[in-house]
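fyi for ur records
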Amino acid sequence: MQDEFTDESARRANTAPGATVGAARYRGAASPSSSRMFAAYLADIEQLLDDQHREAALREALDLPRIAVALADPQLRSAPEQVKRWCEEWVRPPGAERDAQGLEYERLTHTLIERLAQASDAEPVPMRALRRLQLRRHTRSIPRGFRASRSVDLPARDSEMFDLCTALIEAARRWYARSACHDADVQANLARLAVLR
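which gave:
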């Protein structure tokens, strides 16, 4: 796994004949990368869920949209309206509107946007969340075996926390696999975070 996007591959992506800036940004010559930092951050949230520390897991998970938006911005900025758009785009899996779970994802997205609005701070660059992500760069191995299942007898509040966490984790994985791993800004920001002390 890597947390880098070379300058040469970025240059090739931006100078490909006939390529537009937007196309180069998402279909650059660089092969997709994976981020140990990002994967470890998600695994830590899953571990908290496994250990039944749902409130702590939710605090970490609620930072995922802000982290994703900041990573996609050259100045690591995260505006509330961009976070809302990210949730609307990534929380619902493709095709969910055609099944019974579409309404459930709609409810989860609405709940997430409300919680994020309540928790939002005036900080345009989410430094605390990015710092916690950055600390994951030293993770040697990522725990395996998380199963997104919960007991049926969870109280309603715990059940909602679990659902919100798993929806955000799945959304972050979709975002990374379908967009971020090909995005020059995201890869450059991950590389910057990996070398910053």
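The chain has one domain: 36-195. thats all i got for now
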